[in-house]
Write a structure and sequence with these properties.
seven-stranded mixed β-sheet, alpha+beta, 17 strands, single chain, 450 residues
Length: 450
Amino acid sequence: MASLCPLAFQVNRCEPRLITPAKPTPHETKLLSDIDDQQGLRFHVPFIMSYKNNPSILLKQNDPVKVISDALSRALEYYYPLAGRLREVHKKKLMVNCRGEGILFVEANANVTLDELGDAILPPCPFLEEFLFNVPGSDGILGSPLILIQVTRLTCGGFIFALRLNHTMCDAFGLVQFLNAVGEIAQGAEAPSTPPVWERELLSARDPPQISCTHHEFDDTIDHSYLNSAATVQRSFCFCPEEIKALKEHLPPHLSTCSSTFDLITACVWKCRTISLEMDPKQIVRLSCAVNARGKHNTLCLPPGYYGNTFAYPAVVSTAERLCNSPLGYAVELVKKSKAKISEEYLRSVADFVEIRGRPPLAMEGMSDFIVSDNTRTGLGEIDFGWGKPVYAGVAKSIDLISFYVRNTNKAEQYKILVPICLPLSSMERFQQELKKMISFDKVEIPSYI
């Protein structure tokens, strides 16, 4: 789809360089956990954060490129595995070769201001390739830098901090822990306030491994032949308190009072998405909610400072016909069921499953499958390199079948939830129509730029 954004500006980049730990670090190999090295986590996630100029900055050095690159180098003394490279060994097991090779860093300048960018920074960000240059040869899973960062100075004195993460190394909470360490060091700390803990063996398969739970997310017997080869587009949809209130009106009292905003949005989007794809009524559709096992309702105990992946993709299934024709409450109940599956036992069963089955990919690869991940409470909006908190901070776009929920602003009292969706163009138009019917509100979509 052609760009609808009239904004034009130029980004001038310096040659990419590697930032290595400031001091010598151990040369060793470290195994990832059996949660980390799943095939379903072997991809890169792009994040983007925008910062205003801060005239009252107390740092002696006020160039964000210099401050952040120096702090990264010092933080990598503690998080030195992030400066390593992955390699695959027996049975597709991943390990980090720690040799201090470094993370990839790009310095850039753009002749544009934050005000001029406006909502274009929100997902799907139409300027992501400008603010996060895909350095040729850098985007492999094995043998490539685990993190790519670009810091782009803007003419207003603000800057864009964009990052690409190899997801096998950590989840959003682990990434936030690392970036908080960078921020603390940038502001004068000698060391991170939370020392990092590797100990990935804590989430390795048991001996002997035992699959104790049902894992629909790996069930390759489900027909996902509905692949839909049409070209896809991305758009984000905004859910305000008014939309949430409208969705609650579709529910019976016993669900209306105990359903979270996530439950409501996910049920609504899943149902509207399924209707829009016009599948065979008997087609099995599958929803997976990425749920962290370290939540307050779970018993997984890991040491403070652990920065590995601690979540799973518990899935639920339905026929397309039943999901589309049932009241919204049916979808809400399934969302709740997906979330309720997560526990320490479920996570350990996932580790055992991937060990026994030889690290199979997630079986969710067709348009009949849908994965959602709530990134509204990861702490990314708290990252302060010395310029204060970011104006926006979140995942930059949806990735294939995964929609990452983010806040449209970092202002706690004003934020709305953005849901990036990726669909074929004709399905996207039907999705908008179904969504409008569901919430009886015409102005739900953020203007699309791609």
